[in-house]
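ok so I'm stuck.
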Amino acid sequence: MTAQKPKLAMYWAASCGGCEIALANIHEAILEVDAHFDFMFCPCLLDTKKKDIEALPDGAIFLTLFNGALRTEENLEMARLLRRKSQLLVAFGSCAATGGIPSLANQHGIEHVLETAFLNAPGLDNPERLIPGESCTVPDGELSLPPFLQRVLALHDAVAADYSMPGCPPEPEQILAVVRHVASGAPLPPTGSLLGCSARAVCDECPREKRNRLAPRLLRPFEAVPADDWCLLEQGFACLGTSTRGGCQALCPATAMPCTGCYGPLDRDSDPGATALSTLAAALDPGSAPGQDEGSLHAGLRAALAGVPDPLGTFYRYTLAETVLADRATEVEP
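replied:
not stuck anymore, here's the structure
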């Protein structure tokens, strides 16, 4: 009789589904996952029910990859359930690790978010101006939606995550490397470590040439077509590769798309927005003249940085739940 394989689970909370696609993108290597694990829970792919997980003994799941931020009471409930049932719980992807794009909603209250989505979005067809409620009576009974949490949380804000694996989404090669390491029985890194990423910057992985030039101003992507082999930041595009942790092999800059910082800041203790802004400001030469006063210099720098129309969404796109800006209590309902 063969030994029972360790159980593997994957759950999505407030996320786009890209993390599941990244797992599927390991292609035929998914057979390795099947060989080493009993892949028994993944709402996107499998029909396992919540009651099946509740029936398991605590710690029965060896490894859970939890992707998505915590936006609703249901997300929070599942995070707590899977923490109890899992030996290893990994915050999988930027949303689980640092709040991701869903946490940008923390700058506004729930009412504002719902009104924006259901009443004020461009192209919306909602003549009765309906907003979903938490419950609704239908002929077959009462239907309910899980209520929103007051703030979007990263996974470790609610439960203890053993590891974090950044990326939006994590790259398939990195996923496979982590799965193979766990399956091999090799010693695991210390609890709290980052998996599937590098200690080097995306810039160190980027094939584009550095020519040691400063840009006069930042450009928005539609304003110019970047040269094929020249550093995007030196051309004036808001590329965050200098301040972002590597591991993705600079896939975005290699295809003429500026790095948006999804693997997180190089220094886990730094403020990612402040670091990114400092990097961009240092790459600019807005011009100066002899005798120019400090106010004029600042005005020139602000004009040079105007190519970033949404600073919050640029500098904190994946990390807002983890920063000093995370709790704007005056804008969030009590």
